[in-house]
Amino acid sequence: EVRLVESGGGSVQPGGSLRLSCAASGFTFSAANMGWIRQAPGKELEWIAGITPGSGNILYADSVKGRFTISRDNTKSTVYLQLSNLKTADTAMYYCVKALRSMAPRGQGTMVTVSS
């Protein structure tokens, strides 16, 4: 059974940073594409980043390119999302997904709130 557990969310001021983590289990993590998606209050799910098993191919949505960085540690079965220069528009529930560019399967999410 695929299990994805996100952590690291919280409240931060505009311009601030956070690092999200996603601990994966139930599958061969080192062979899996992984990604992050988010859902802002009242809005649809938005794909934001994806990474291939060996980190050789990394993709970002235009909305986060240059501000967010996805990475992974295959020895820890964990994928990360470094959020920098956060904006109020980045306020959302952030989900880890076992996919490069799709929305599922995903974890339970971790909330990021950007507010002054």
Q: What can you tell me about this protein's structure?
A:
The structure is a single chain. With 116 residues, the protein is mainly beta. The chain has no helices and ten strands. It has strands at 3-7, 10-12, 18-25, 34-39, 45-51, 58-60, 68-73, 78-83, 92-97, 110-114. Strands 2-10-9-4-5-6 form a six-stranded mixed beta sheet, with no helix packed on it.
SSE order and pairing:
Layout: E1 3-7, E2 10-12, E3 18-25, E4 34-39, E5 45-51, E6 58-60, E7 68-73, E8 78-83, E9 92-97, E10 110-114
Parallel strand pairs: 2-10
Antiparallel strand pairs: 1-3, 3-8, 4-5, 4-9, 5-6, 7-8, 9-10
Total helical elements: 0
Overall morphology: globular
**Going across the major beta sheet, what is the strand order?**
2-10-9-4-5-6
The level of helicity is under 10%
Q: List low-confidence stretches.
A: none
Sheet having the most strands: 6 strands, mixed
Q: Could you report the average pLDDT, rounded to the nearest whole number?
A: 97
Summarize the structure.
The protein is mainly beta and 116 residues long. Helix content is 0%, strand content 47%.
